[in-house]
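User: two proteins, same treatment. go.

Assistant:
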Amino acid sequence: MAKRTDTENATTRKHVTQGEVDRLRKAAGRGRNGHRNQLMIYMAFRHGLRVSELVRFKWDQILWEEEDIQVLRRKGSESGTHPMDDLEMKALRKLPGKHTGWVFQSERGGKMTENGFFKMLARAGLAAGLEFPVNPHMLRHGCGFKLNAEGRNTRTIQGWLGHKNIASTVIYTALGSQHFREQGMGR
C-alpha cells in the first residue's frame, strides 16, 4: 500500500460547528488543566480569536464592571470590545492564580504558548472522536460561520472578527444547508 502524502491526509474542513466545539470542550475538560482548556476553546470560538490573540490575553483586558473584554487583534486586524457572557465571567473568575498578567498560563506560571494550545486542541479532537484533525484557526472560522447561520449581517461579522477588508468576511456568508432547508430544498 502506498504511503499517503500530507495533502491527502489534510482535511478539507476549515471550521468546526457548535456541536463539535461542545465535544471538544468536554474532551478538553479532563485532567488538571481541564477548566483552563475548556475556557480557552470556548473563548477562541465565541470571539473568533486567533491562537496568537488567545495566548496573549491579559487580565487587564477584562472590563469587569462593563462585562466586556478588550480584544487585541493581530495581523493588522481591528481591535475592539466584545461583551462577555455569564459562562465566561464565571469561568474566568474560577481560574487559579493572582489574576494579573497572562490569563491563560502554563503549569509553570508563564503564558500558554501557541504550540501548547495547538497540541491540547489536537488531543481534544482525538478524544472527542472527531474524524478530522482540528487546529486553532478552525475555531475562528467556526465563529464566522456560526454568526452567519444566526443571521448576523456581513458588517457585524466583519466587526466581530476584526477584518479590515470585507472581502475577508464574505467567505462566511455562503449559503448553508439550513438556508436551503428553509427554502424547502431539504427532505
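Protein 2:
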Amino acid sequence: MQSLEHQRVVITGGSRGLGLGVVEALVARRAEVVVVARDADRLAALERRLGVTVISGDITERALADKVVREISPNVVILNAGAPPAMAPLHEQTWESFTAIWDHDVRAGFHWIQAALRTPLGRGGRVLITSSGAAVAGSPLSGGLAGAKRMLWLMAKYANGVAAELDLGVRFQALVPLQIIGDTEHGRIAAGAYARKKGIAVEAFLAGFGRSMPPRQYGEHVVAILTDPAYDSAGALGMKGDTGIQILEG
C-alpha cells in the first residue's frame, strides 16, 4: 500500500507514548484509525483532538481481539500496547513481576495474531507487532521483558508461516526499536533505573544511544514501513534515531 488514505488501521495502545506518535503520523496521511486502549479518559481526549475512532477495553481478552478484527475489518493492525516492566535485578524480582510482560504483551499478541489469521484479514493485510531492542541485547533490570519481546518477534515469524500455508496473503512484521525512548513514560522509567545503576544522569545514559527517536519520528518510520515497497517482505525491522530503519530479518 503506497498510500494510507482511507486505509483502516487498528492500533492497540495508541493513546500515549510511541503508539500516540504512530496515530498522529497515520492521521496526517488520512488513514481511518481505530485506537484500542484501557484508559477511557485518554481515549476521549484523543478522539476530540484527532477525530479517530476509539474503543476502550482490555487488549489481552480474546473476545475483544476477535470482535474488533471481525467488525472493523482493518487493512492494518498495529500491536503496540505494552505493560511497564518492574525494574529490578533478577534476585529482587518476584515470579509475578518477572512474568507480567508475558501475561500482558505476549498474551495480547497471541490473541490478536490469531484473530488476524482466523478471521482473517483481507489479502494484502499487514500486522505490525512491536518488539524491543531488549529482544536482541537483553535487559537485565526488566524481568522477563527481553524474552517476551523475543517471543513476539518469533510469533510474527510463525504467523507468516501459517499465512503462507493457508494462502491468506497477510504479512506479519516485528517492529524493533533499538534504543530506549526517553520521551515516553515507560522509557523514562527504564532509563532512570539503568542510569542509577551506572551512577550517571538519565540524560547521559540516553545519550549513549545516539540521536533520540521521539514518538512522532517513530510514527513516521512506521508509516514508511507500511508505504515503501522496500520493506514489504521484511520479517523484522529495527529503528534508531541515528540510522533510521534497517531490515533485521528478511
